[in-house]
Amino acid sequence: MNLASQILTILMDQPGETLSGQRLADTFAVSRNAIWKTIKQLNQEGYQITSQGRSGYQLEKLYQRADSRQLQALLCHEPALPAIHIAVHDQVTSTNDLAKQFLIDHPQDIGLFISHQQTAGRGRQGRPFNSNLSHGLYFSLAFGPKQADPQLISLYTIAAATACCQALAPYLDQELKIKWVNDLFYQKRKVAGILCEGITDLENMRVSGLLVGIGLNLAGDFSQADPAIQKVAGTLFGHHLPDNFNENQFLASFLVYFYQYHKELAKKAFIPYYSDHLLGRGQRVSYQSAGQEEQGVILGINDMGHLLIDQGQGEVKELMSGEVHFGSQQFTS
Questions:
Q1: Could you read off the pLDDT of 65-95 as tens digits, one per residue?
Q2: Which SUPFAM superfamilies match (predicted)?
């Protein structure tokens, strides 16, 4: 951890307190001039650290956008979490692409890649994912799965959706809903998509690495987007980000929830929350399965996360995520 990260961490740990330049210099075994230069650097990066004359420095306001220093400082207080490599970018092709390359180069490590814009974002089955919102947050977590069972590995999408909803809940006035299997809806509009991809070890025929990519529509508008997107897409916070939403605090919360589920995936502790927030329960919907157009009433999910559809006359169909596609427009009215 470099000096800027160390200073930020100690200021965050003592909110409202003024720490003298000499105390900081003694703590980190550097000169007071080095402390002054580093405080200036942090202010230039978007933090508000004020100088209280000879009394020292006080952190007035955190930088609200994603920042690796602040996020690492928050994660220092989560001893259950392993070490995570964090990289933040303004724009990338796809955070999942960065995460995939990271796993290839560092198969034993965990990486988190964050961006505010993607030029080649994608969703399930290679569909384009709109990533040009004025306030978007796109991130991918790369890690090795603890489970070899491919049926359990398929639960990571459901675990990620649950963790994302739980981490966002404190900032929202209404409940998020989860459109099976990987989209989040807020006020009847799609506000997030989740894409889980695996790296397969062909020699041993097992999944050796996983990428969990999440795209969030935080704020902005879709007036310049394709008309089909305008009919479905929405944002969590309207046109402007609220003052109380800190991307780093949200990301830290997501990581805590998700890692708890990851450690004990087989217990499926996320299933009840996901089920309670399932979009369209009791609604008759149309969907495509094996190339055929079908209809039925959504009943819920089972303990493997498969969707249960009542097709009438006592027939209940169990759908797996890879075999079916729901049009989102039927959930927006």
A1: 999 999 999 999 999 999 999 999 999 999 9
A2: C-terminal domain of transcriptional repressors, Class II aaRS and biotin synthetases, Winged helix' DNA-binding domain
Distance of CA 91 to the CA centre of its chain: 16
**How sure is the predictor about 52, in pLDDT bands with cuts at 50, 70 and 90?**
confident
Q: Among positive and negative, which fits the CA dihedral 75, 235, 182, 127? A: negative
CA gap 312, 298 in Å, rounded: 11
Strands 316-319 and 183-186: unpaired
| Residue 333 is assigned to a structural domain of this protein | no
The token pair at 286 is 């149309």
Q: In what order do the strands lie in the sheet containing 316-319? A: 316-319, 307-310, 292-301, 284-289, 324-326
Say if 143 falls within a structural domain: yes
Q: Is residue 331 part of a domain?
A: no
User: Hunting for tokens 């890879």 — which residue is that?
Assistant: 322
Do 121 and 246 have their domain in common?
yes
Q: How far apart are CA 136 and CA 121, in angstroms?
A: 12
Written as six digits, the tokens of 105 are: 């180069």
Q: Residue 293's closest CA among 281, 285, 304?
A: 285
Q: What is the CATH number of the domain that holds 28?
A: 1.10.10.10
The type of residue at 27 is T
Q: Which residue matches tokens 């003024």? A: 18
Split into its structural domains, the chain has a count of 3
Instruction: Report the chain's C-alpha Rg in angstroms.
Output: 22
283-292 long-range contacts (CB < 8 A, ≥24 apart) are: 283/331, 285/309, 285/326, 285/330, 285/331, 286/326, 286/327, 286/330, 287/319, 287/324, 287/325, 287/326, 287/327, 288/324, 288/325, 289/319, 289/323, 289/324, 290/323
- pLDDT per position as a tens digit, 114-124: 999 999 887 76
